[in-house]
Each structure stands twice: as structure tokens, then as C-alpha cells.
Predict the 3D structure of the following.
Amino acid sequence: MGGESKAIVGSVIVSIGTITAAIGSTPSKYLKSSVRDDLTLIGNVLQATGNGIDAEADGTILRAVGKEITASGNVTVFAGVIFDIRKEASYKLFIAGNLLQALGLGVNVGEAVELAPFPGQSENIVGGLTQIIGNTMQAIGWSEALDSIKKNENKQKKFGYFYDDQLESSNDQSELLVATGSWIQAVGSVISVIGAIKEESATY
């Protein structure tokens, strides 16, 4: 698989992962909390895998570093979902994971801005910025959920992470921020796929 192909394949996998995770983060009476947890888990695994593949595509070292940082953020969120730890610890991992993703995307956006104009550049920049906004909103949402838990710390603590727990312990605003941020990130990832396709098409 050539470098350009890796960029497209990686971007597509990331996009599928962000959409999957966004579905999992969205409150729904049709999906059980366990199903939503699984979607969040699968989504972040796909994002980490896609970013890892994309990091091997042709480009600068800075580009690869940005992708690896973003992938580490996905792994951090993954850890918060899968490990049997207190909700406070899970939420902290979600916050850290989303901020790491935003940082990695920021590195890539900065690198793209510094390059000479190329096909798909604007889509890469806009897509990256959109995803940064989405990740930041999710981090803020989880921060508010964490604050809500601290305010009710006298209540019996539970282990593990479930979306039902968030509904019990956080306000509607934090849940809305997380869900909205997830979908904004998903939109940004789709824009980035378009940029990757344009970039490769120009090489033929």
C-alpha cells in the first residue's frame, strides 16, 4: 500500500470510527447503555487504528507525530471505557483523551498551514479545525460531568463506566456537549477524507 493510499484508508477508518463513537454518545431510547458503550469502544479503536495507518503515509515527521498523538488520545478514551475504574477516573481519561486528540490535530493543522498550497489542503485544514472544536466540546462536557460527580461525592460511588451513570450524575448540558462535540468531530473527519482523496487524485 502506497503512502497516498494509506492516507486515504487511514482517514476513512478514522471517519467511520468518529461516526460510530458519535452514535454511541448520543442519548437514545432505542439503544441500551451497553450497546452505546460498545459503539464508543469500537469507534475509538477504529480511530486509533486509522490514525496509526495515516501516520505511516508519506509526509513530514511532524505530520506523523500529530497522527500518533491523536491515536494516543483515542487509546486513552478507550482505556476509560474498558477498564473497571471509578467514574471519576474514567471521566478524567475521557477529558485527557479528547484533549490529546485536539493537540494532535492542532499539530497537523499547523503543519498543513505551513506547507505550499496543494490539492485538498483547505479541506485538511478545515476538517482538522472542525475536529478540534468537537474534541474540545467533548472535553468540556466531560469536565462538567466530573464536576457534577464531585458535587455529589457523598453518594455511593460506582465502578465502571456506563452512559446511564452519566445521566444520573450530570446535567443535560454536559451530555449535550459530549454528543454535539462527537458529531462535530465526525463531520470534520468526513471533510478530512475529502481532502485526502483530492490530494491523492492530484498525484495521478
